[in-house]
Structure formats: C-alpha cells, structure tokens
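Researcher: Next sequence.
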Amino acid sequence: MAFESPQDEGPTIVATIKNLKTGEIEFINEASVTTISSHYLTDANGSQTETVQTSCEAFFPIESNETLLQPLDSESGNKNAGGVTATVTVVYQFNQQQDKIKTIRCYGSWSPDSGLYYLTNRNVVVIPGALTGYSLNKYPTSDYFDYYTGWGYLTRQPDGTYQQQANTYATVYVGGMESAGGYQLSLHLYYGSFS
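Model: Next structure:
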C-alpha cells in the first residue's frame, strides 16, 4: 500500500490502522504520532560526517463497535481501548555536498499494552528513494527488529512520493477472538527531507 507523503519540514510520519473485517482505514491523529529525536552522531573513527538518527512513535488504539473487541476494565466494568505502540528509527548520513544519502540502519518495535493482543504478519520495508532501485524487505519473527542495510551513498530523492522512507506493518488480533477480525497497523517515516 503506497501513501503520498505530505510536503512538510523535517521528517514526515503517516500512521494508519485498517480494520480487516470492514476494510475501514483510519489515520492516527497527530497527538498520537511524535518525532522522538533528530540529532547528530559522530562515527566510530571520530569523523565529522553528518550522521542523523530520526525516530517516531505511534499508538494504535484497538477499538471497535463490537463489544468483543473492547476489553473490560476490571474495576469499573467499563470498556476501554488498549492498543499497540509502534516505533521506528532510521540512522543515515549525508555526503559533504548533501546530495547523496546513505541509509545505515533501521530498527524499532511493536509493543502491545496487554497480553490480550498478539501480532502476526510483521513486515519492515526500507526504501532509500523510489528511483534508486534499492530496498530492504524483511519479515521479523518477533516484536523487535534491527537491520543494517549495507548500502553506500545513493542519490538523495526529492521530497514527496519518491522520498526515502521506512515502513512497518503488522497485524494485531485479540487472543481467542480471531473470528471477530484483526487490524493492520502501518507506520511510514519519510526521512532525509530537503525541507
């Protein structure tokens, strides 16, 4: 599923949750999506190469009109929505002219806030620009991932659809209630912006 990146300054984040039973897709509101850090690091050789680490986090509430998908609050008996927190971090460098980018590493996690939820179909896709011909496509077997790309410097892509991006996907179910349907969680971080 491709998403058009909004034009904005700095990293852009798009987070969606899809109800697999109804097909409805909702965008996670801005209050639930934050940029944790965007700072500079120095490499192991003490070189002054500009290295940037950009992270984002989104909370995906697991809600439904169906009573079965809303766990009961043990004290009051009220229904409350739990969910899953997803994070993704990308580490990358720019060359001295700032026209090339080297994506070094991508890591992150999915953290259910309750033992009721479990994740399947995890997928991590890193694209260092749609026009480069490179991509990293992995299927983590746990709720944490950490991948090094091994790529060199590639031409920095224009902001928007062709921009560098890290995408994570996972499907979450409520244990014992799989027939009620699950949710696909999608988190897209567009990085290395010219803005």
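Model: The chain is about 0% helix and 50% strand. The radius of gyration is 18 Å.
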